[in-house]
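lol ok so funny story. i was supposed to be doing the assay writeup but got distracted and ended up predicting the structure for this chain instead. priorities right. anyway since i did it might as well share w the group, maybe its usefull for someone
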Amino acid sequence: MPKAPWLASYGDIPADIDPDVHPSLAHLFDEAMRRYAQRPALRAGDTVLSYADVDRLSRDFAAYLQHAGVKKGDRVAVMLPNLLAFPIALIGIVRAGAVQVNVNPLYTPRELQHQLVDSGAQALVVCDAALPTFEAIKANTAVKTVLSVGAADGLGNAGGEDGASAPQPGSFAAALAQGAALPFEPPALCGDDPLFLQYTGGTTGLSKGALLTHRNLVANVEQFKTFMPGFMTPGEEVVVTALPLYHIFALTVNLITYFSIGSENWLVANARDLDNLIDVFKAARPTSFMGVNTLYAGLVAHPRIGEVDFSRLRLAGGGGAAIIPTVSARWQAITGGFIREGYGLSETSPVLSFNPGSIERFTGTTGLPVPSTHVKLMNDGVEAAPGEAGEICAKGPQVMQGYWNQPEATRAAFTEDGYFRTGDVGMFDEGGFLRIVDRSKDMILVSGFNVYPNEIEAVVTALPGVAECACVGVADERSGEAVRVFVVPARDAVLTAEQVIAHCREQLAAYKVPRVVSFVEALPKSTVGKILRRELRDVA
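and the output, tada:
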């Protein structure tokens, strides 16, 4: 193993965790639902579910899935914003031994079809707003069971009230009602069983499914809890979840980790509605909040932020993109606490490093590697010398098994000695704190979401009249980065930027759509014909 300069900064934090402290994520959920049965678990709007409610409802959904023919290891796609149905579906899928495929509800038919076909999902839980997207491609998928979720429903008689109206056939609520009358036989589960397919960008323009196991998630939950003991008091935490749960950061930290310690979780379906988010803050008075830089920047600039009582807030975490120092400073001036930054990827469940509780100020780093995580920095196959930058390569119990049905991509993603190659460049300071020097050079980070140029280029090139194109990221005050496309028109073609953008809106989620389209006569290329995106970034 490489040297671990970060251990000297650990203090009382154990260097290692037990990744098998729970045999599976189902066992983790079961323990929390028994221990905190009477505590409030989830809130959305005026609806509150206790841990006992979650136990009952998720059991009913697991029974429904079994009755519908979903077996251990089968894939179930969930295409929802932060509605109460998301955690109920998740825990039900876990208890049934199935594999959850997390899908962005803003995806276009093309993007959705790829994930459903690639994963082989046979069931889909989908919000009403995204149903037309699925309808457009359902004939091309293997999905047999579709359950719809309305923005304000989906749980039927969730809290056990009498007189609830009958749920609509084909709805998630109807599935829960049906499952309540069915037997359920929990399957045998272990740490090696698959749990999530978390899709992430691919070099071919198509996303790859990172295969995460029960042990991966149990380990990352335990790593975070062990690393932040003073901020994770069982039965006392209140967390506001505005980041989307289909994103691995919120999924692991906000939902699963905080659920495991009996927290009260306030779900926010639309983080862009800052007025509503501030209303939630006022009502919840959270002890913990996780966000990305753009969300924090929007909040500190909001005229109503002073209405919120932040006196209970102990932990404000940041991930997905670099936290700008001025944003953390403004947040601290308002709330009394700085933003603790972390680092991770879909392939690592996601947390690799975080700023521990012992830190008393904003560091501008992503913190220390979490327990049982080994990180080395590599340059052309040689480990970087102390103080030098290198590609961040990580090994630990939270690192994925590989990419779903992509053995070649999996082999390329790991070093010969089993370290996952992140593609990001970092360096350690003298205290072992990891600073990100540069991301994977071609990836674009829009509001914390990865955008891979190959996918954008594949879509733009499919537009008649486009000879070739190249995509780069440009600085943007609102989203951190924005997408800019350089287009070479075909001979005699007449194209406008509006046409290119309209075409992309039909094929891509909104955050991937180019903000700027530039027409050029030719693209800079190397002697072997490779497009030199670096030169385009310099131009941009």
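The domain at 58-189 is CATH 3.40.50.980 (Rossmann fold). Residues 483 and 515 are 6 Å apart (CA to CA).
back to the writeup now i swear
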